[in-house]
Amino acid sequence: MPDNPTATKYTWDAMPVEQVTDQLSRRLITGDKMMLAHVYLKKGTIVPLHQHHNEQITYILEGALRFWIGSEDAEPIVVGVGEVLHIPGNVWHKAEAIEDTLDVDIFSPPRQDWLDKSDDYLRLK
Amino acid sequence: MPDNPTATKYTWDAMPVEQVTDQLSRRLITGDKMMLAHVYLKKGTIVPLHQHHNEQITYILEGALRFWIGSEDAEPIVVGVGEVLHIPGNVWHKAEAIEDTLDVDIFSPPRQDWLDKSDDYLRLK
C-alpha cells in the first residue's frame, strides 16, 4: 500500500496563488516524485540564469517564453503555445516572458526550494 | 554533467500520434524521471481498472473523465477542464471519457509499458 492510498482532486481556479514577485505568481500541486505548477509570468518577466538538480518539463498553455540554455550567450529558443521544453537536471537556463504567459512546469523530484521559499534567484532583482 | 546536457523542444502538433485503439490515441514526451503525455479519448472510452507503480498526475485540458479509485464500486470522481487528479503509485483506477477529451498525463517514472507497448489493459476489449 502506498502512504496515501487515495487520489486527490485539485481545481486550479480554487487554489491559492503565491505572488512571488510583482511579475510572477504560481500555484503548486506537489506529489511524491513530482510537482506540477501553474506559473503566471507578466510580459517582460526575466527568470535569471539558474540551475537545479530537478528535471524540468515546461509546457506553454498561453503566451510564450524565450529560453537561453547553458549560458546567457546561447542562441535563444522560443517556446510558444502547444510547445514543450525538456530541460534535464543540472542544466543552466534563463527565461524571458515575451507575452503574458501561463507556463505549466513539471519537476521531478518536487522543487524543495519552491516549497520552502528559498528560491532567491526568482525573488531578488 | 547530465547524460544529455541540452534542452529539447517539442511541438505537439508536429509529433506522431500513436493510435492505441479506435477510441484512444496519444503522444509521448519521455524524460529521464518523468513522462508527459497527450492522451486523446473519444467520448465513451473506458480505461479498465488497472494499477502501476508509476505516480500519475492527470490534467484535463478539454472534455472530462469520470474516475473510480480503488475499485469499480467506488464513488466516481469527475475531473473536468482546469482540474487535476493526483493518483499515487500502485493505486487501482478506472476511467471513462464523458466527452471527447484531451488529457495531459504525467508519470514518474516514465511508463515503460507505454514505451514497449505491453499495456494490454488498454488494448484488449
From TrEMBL, chains A, B:
PANTHER family from the entry?
Answer: H2HPP ISOMERASE
According to UniProt, the name of this protein is Cupin domain-containing protein
- Domain Cupin type-2 as annotated: residue spans: 38-103
Q: Which organism is it from?
A: Hymenobacter cyanobacteriorum
Q: SUPFAM superfamilies recorded for this chain?
A: RmlC-like cupins
Q: What's the domain of life for this entry?
A: Bacteria
